[in-house]
Amino acid sequence: MKSREETTMQPISENDSSIINRLNALESENRRLKRWCGGALLGFLVVVTCGAALVADNTLILRDRDGNSRFVAGVHPEDIRNTFVSMSDDRRNQFLRMGNDPFNGSYFFILDRADKKRIECGVDKNNNEYMRFYDREGQVVRSLP
């Protein structure tokens, strides 16, 4: 039988300290991974229960309670370099559109209730930035540069 002195804990050696640090790092990483997976699952469930639909042509559509599409994101079926995102209001009017088109460059539009561009900015296919402001009739009233 071991005496009381023999059963007491020994001081931690440098090698034991290294193992403990590694174990703590692994436990921390495991907790972080669980949070990410839980968040991803929660996000997926929110999207599914809110009526999102993944359409066959690589387009994600989020709809409101009335079935109106409010958020659309997708990839052009004939050219995967052409991506887009648009948002619509409750009257089915788009108010924001952005995307990337290999022939025209990257763009960002803000539209009015009549679905006319009011502000446009982006980078064209030659890598030149631009910004344009439009009036209600769709005419450019100011352009930068």
Structure characterization notes:
This protein has 145 residues and is an alpha+beta fold. It has one helix and nine strands; from the N terminus they run H-E-E-E-E-E-E-E-E-E. It has a nine-stranded antiparallel beta sheet, with no helix packed on it. A hairpin with a 7-residue loop joins strand 3 (69-75) and strand 4. The longest helix has 36 residues, at 14-49. 3% of the residues are buried.
**Could you tell me how far the N terminus lies from the C terminus, measured between alpha carbons in angstroms?**
89 Å
Low-confidence stretches: none
Q: State the major sheet.
A: 9 strands, antiparallel
General form:
elongated
Q: Could you provide a short overview of the structure?
A:
The chain is 25% helix and 37% strand.
